[in-house]
Specification:
Blueprint lengths: L1 H22 L3 E8 L2 H18 L4 E2 L7 E10 L3 H12 L5 E12 L4 E10 L1 H15 L14 E6 L8 H9 L3 E7 L1 E8 L6 E9 L5
Antiparallel strand pairs: 1-3, 1-8, 2-6, 4-5, 4-7, 5-6, 8-9
């Protein structure tokens, strides 16, 4: 119990330190992502109320905050941003717009008690994966540690509040296996700042690099 209290106290001091640093504009919580646009978000919004009624205890992502993460950078000093921006620009300059279809609901975690509910992505997913791998290569010299898991692009809709999962999210998967949320053109990579609060994370775009249009 004493060790647990020390860990909690240490974690609290760490969080407080980060909050203090961020208050002075020295550190930021950053990630790099692509967005799927208004058509996809609009179609998800149409179904969201029905889905939320099926799993009312889950933590649902705001439609306007939905994105596909390419790299989560964590808390970094503000002076790292120019180098990160340059890495994004270098990758974006070598890519071209690609098309993704948002279709079907799936989950991560137990088949009986899912932990995460997501929208599947189809189409030019391999081209997106190539961009993600290239981005990781550019970020490694800046101290980034690539994910060990294979890149699996998706749109997160909800997370279970209980670490053991939420059986009600399974109802959402069964309901939405064949739902079609439309098509999106991916034409840019965006660097976001994430600000945490009791009401959830707020995302602010700090920089975006567009893909050259070859048409």
């Amino acid at each position: 119990m004493r060790r647990l209290r020390k860990r909690i106290a240490g974690s609290s001091r760490f969080c407080q330190s980060l909050l203090t640093l961020r208050a002075y504009g020295l550190w930021m919580r950053l990630f790099i992502a692509v967005e799927l646009g208004e058509e996809v978000r609009g179609r998800i919004a149409v179904e969201l109320n029905s889905l939320q009624r099926m799993a009312p205890d889950a933590k649902w992502v705001r439609v306007e905050s939905m994105h596909v993460t390419l790299a989560f950078l964590g808390h970094l000093p503000e002076d790292k941003v120019p180098a990160i921006r340059a890495a994004i620009e270098k990758v974006a300059a070598t890519r071209h717009p690609l098309s993704l279809q948002a279709r079907g609901l799936g989950s991560f975690g137990s088949s009986r008690r899912p932990r995460v509910l997501w929208v599947g992505l189809h189409g030019e997913v391999e081209l997106l994966a190539q961009s993600q791998h290239r981005l990781e290569d550019e970020l490694v010299p800046l101290g980034y540690q690539p994910e060990r898991r294979a890149f699996n692009p998706h749109l997160t809709l909800a997370r279970a509040r209980n670490p053991s999962g939420d059986a009600k999210l399974l109802r959402c998967v069964e309901y939405g296996r064949d739902l079609d949320f439309g098509r999106a053109q991916i034409d840019r990579i965006v660097l976001f700042r994430s600000d945490l609060s009791p009401k959830g994370a707020r995302y602010t775009a700090l920089h975006e690099s567009r893909f050259p249009n070859d048409q």
